[in-house]
Amino acid sequence: MWGIIAAFVLGIIISAVGVVPYHFYRHLDKVLTAILLVLLFGMGLNIGLDENITGNIFNLGKTAFLISAASVLGSVLVAWYFGKWIYGEKK
């Protein structure tokens, strides 16, 4: 956990100091997409190899759907509330 936080803070510091050349920033979205795809592929492999998950995929699917639906609904409601609170109601 601390390694993740340290990497994040180090990235902020290096970017703020200006050590990274500009041409790297132009390609950063492609690099991040490639890294994300590799990470998702690795997670898929890990899930596929776990017999507990693959054996209960239908039960886990229902639970995952309910959790994600509740998360989306909660996020929308909180964003709506804070949007009204911050910007006020337009007349």
CA(first)-CA(last) distance: 47 Å
Shape: flat
Give a quick account of the main beta sheet: strands, pairing sense, barrel closure. Answer: none
Q: Bin the helical content.
A: over 70%
Q: List the helices and strands in order.
A: HHHHH
Q: Pairing-aware structural class of the strands and helices?
A: mainly alpha
How many domains? 2
Radius of gyration: 20 Å
* Helix run count: 5
Write a structural description.
The chain has 91 residues and is an all-alpha fold. The mean pLDDT is 86. It is 87% helix and 0% strand. It has 5 helices and no strands.
What topology does this entry show?
Layout: H1 2-17, H2 22-26, H3 28-49, H4 51-55, H5 57-87
Task: Write a concise keyword list for the protein shown above.
87% helix; 5 helices; 91 residues; mainly alpha
Short description:
The chain has 91 residues and is an all-alpha fold. It contains 5 helices and no strands.
